[in-house]
Specification:
224 residues; alpha+beta; 3 helices; 54% helix
């Protein structure tokens, strides 16, 4: 009888140990289930989608400066082209203004009597028109010291007289034939008569000497 009790006690003790081990195993399995489930939830498609969206946003943010740089470069290119165009337009406008001014100056130089007072007739019946211009200036001189009019065709004075006549009439010295050049009533006054080689027009020009400045035209008469 005593052996039977001991046997029952041993069997009960074994069952208790077996139940304890079983409970521990069950607990371990539950913990593993919870861990696996949590891992699956963390890597769910929604979480993955959120990660993809976050990744795309990060890539777009990284690429944005490059796009801005490209736009900035394009804007600078446009500004450079506009600047080059403006400089080109300004240069063309400046060149046009210079040509216009040159044309105006040429037009003025082609008309030696611009601004002059022109009247019909003159000092003799052979005079068609008389021209007097208050803007006439002395033509300058290379002579020094006291001046004495010299009517020698090889002298400096003679050359400067012809320059004054050319200045007053607009007829170049190469295009004029000197008919007469001499004194006009006083030591410092002279008068010359010329004819143009190309058209045959005759002019009679009175000039006067200005000390240190040369001969100055005072009157031009166009002869018939």
């Amino acid at each position: 009888m005593s052996e039977t009790r001991e046997s029952r006690f041993e069997n009960r003790d074994k069952r208790r140990k077996a139940n304890l081990v079983l409970n521990i195993l069950i607990g371990i399995v539950l913990v593993l289930i919870v861990v696996v489930a949590s891992s699956l939830m963390m890597n769910s498609p929604k979480e993955q989608a959120q990660q993809d969206v976050s990744k795309n946003d990060s890539e777009q943010t990284t690429e944005a400066p490059a796009s801005n740089d490209k736009k900035q470069t394009s804007d600078e290119d446009i500004k450079d082209k506009d600047k080059g165009k403006t400089e080109s337009d300004d240069k063309e406008s400046s060149d046009s203004d210079k040509e216009k001014a040159s044309d105006e100056d040429q037009s003025k130089s082609d008309d030696p009597f611009e601004g002059a007072k022109i009247t019909e007739g003159g000092s003799s019946a052979n005079v068609e028109k008389t021209i007097i211009n208050p803007d006439w200036k002395p033509v300058g001189t290379k002579q020094t010291g006291e001046h004495t009019a010299t009517y020698d065709s090889s002298s400096q004075d003679w050359g400067e007289m012809l320059e004054a006549i050319s200045y007053a009439t607009g007829v170049s010295k190469d295009n004029m034939t000197v008919i007469w050049l001499g004194n006009n009533g006083s030591p410092q006054d002279a008068k010359g008569t010329i004819r143009t080689k190309d058209s045959g027009v005759k002019y009679q020009v009175a000039i006067t000497w200005v000390d240190g400045k040369g001969w100055k035209p005072t009157k031009v008469e166009k002869l018939k």
